[in-house]
Write a structure and sequence with these properties.
4-stranded mixed beta sheet; disordered N terminus; about 55% helix; mainly alpha; disordered C terminus; 16 helices; 4 strands
Length: about 350
């Protein structure tokens, strides 16, 4: 039930509670700084829309829509009514005027996506529907509506097309390298966009515990009685701070082929944002409006993004990030760290005169 007291079709099984609505909210309110700056820059480019309309003739969007229509179940008041109610409610809360079509497709893997160039289409797998409870699923639907409001479906469709194209031209060395360079850049952006959409899901569900449960289930399956949110978040802390420089490099290599950030990282990022002043201001009704988007400064967005990256690097416990921060700050003893090998990047060098065995050269 939304804060206007209306009960949308299909939500009868959801416990009634008040949810705040955000009239006219701009996607800038919840977008991750890195995601937001990239989108603002793209939207400001002269001829950007014309280029993508020209590409639309090459992209298999019509084929995708026909595929979903012919081989999936379209969500409506008569089919998956509870999902239909969640979708309408999510669009009402985020003030998305046109409710995008939504399909359920048979796939045991828990997954969801928002694709489409002209109009977004939301697709969720049966594996996801069967895995999550009502409130967890509400956050996922809000996540996908957030993608639609931000315009992410356009870039997601292009990413899917280019990934498929890269496989078809893999035998052409230079052609494949050029396409994969674009795909890698799009994946890096899309990983940031997932953090934005997680925030949108929280604004819709307005239950951070449900959002956390959903991420845990995506990571560990339907064994909630065997899992613990605090322990799950401790994994994220260990992932961020553990290991040495070698692990930092391996983290980068592990994440490069992925379209989504790791689930523990997503959970930690969402918890951090849920506890922030920025989130509280949105809940209090103070947020950027859509009618102000045209006045958005590209420079301001890039500065916000740079400040966010600098803050993340400063607060990060990752050995590589600590090294970069130390070098940027003019910290000395780089040679000493190199002589001690990778373990030299695990922790600060010992104080002068310290004869601890860990400082002996082998």
């Amino acid at each position: 039930m939304s804060d206007d007291g209306r009960q949308h079709p299909g939500t009868e099984r959801v416990p009634s509670r008040q949810r705040r609505r955000f009239p006219g909210i701009s996607s800038r309110a919840y977008e991750h700084p890195a995601d937001r700056s990239a989108l603002v820059a793209l939207r400001k480019l002269t001829g950007f829309d014309a280029v993508f309309k020209a590409l639309s003739g090459l992209l298999p969007e019509r084929s995708l829509r026909l595929l979903f229509l012919s081989d999936s179940v379209r969500v409506s008041e008569r089919q998956f009514a509870h999902l239909h109610g969640m979708l309408r409610d999510a669009c009402y809360i985020l003030d998305l005027e046109k409710v995008p079509p939504m399909y359920v497709t048979q796939d045991p893997q828990p997954n969801a996506m928002c694709v489409g160039l002209d109009e977004p289409v939301i697709v969720v797998s049966t594996g996801l529907v069967e895995l999550l409870d009502e409130e967890e699923m509400r956050a996922v639907v809000g996540h996908e509506v957030g993608h639609a409001l931000s315009g992410h479906s356009v870039y997601r469709t292009i990413l899917l097309f280019l990934t498929s194209l890269a496989l078809k031209v893999a035998w052409i060395p230079l052609g494949n390298m050029a396409i994969m360079a674009i795909v890698t850049a799009l994946r890096e952006w899309f990983r940031k966009s997932e953090l934005s959409a997680d925030r949108a899901g929280l604004l819709v569900g307005q239950d951070v515990r449900a959002s956390m449960r959903g991420l845990m289930k995506i990571a560990g399956g339907n064994h909630l009685h065997e899992m613990n949110v605090d322990a799950f978040l401790e994994q994220a802390e260990e992932y961020d701070s553990g290991g040495d420089l070698r692990d930092s490099v391996l983290k980068i290599l592990n994440v490069l082929p992925r379209s989504h950030p790791f689930t523990t990282v997503r959970a930690a990022e969402l918890k951090k944002w849920a506890e922030s002043r920025e989130h509280q201001r949105i809940m209090d009704g103070h947020y950027p409006r859509r009618d102000e988007d045209k006045d958005t400064s590209v420079g301001d967005s890039f500065r916000e993004s740079a400040a966010s990256y600098a803050g993340d690097a400063k607060d990060s416990k990752d050995p590589l990030m600590k090294l970069v921060t130390d070098l940027a700050g003019g910290a000395g003893d780089l040679g000493g760290r190199v002589r001690r090998g990778f373990d030299g990047f695990r922790s600060p060098p010992p104080a002068k005169g310290d004869t601890a065995s860990g400082d002996r050269e082998e």
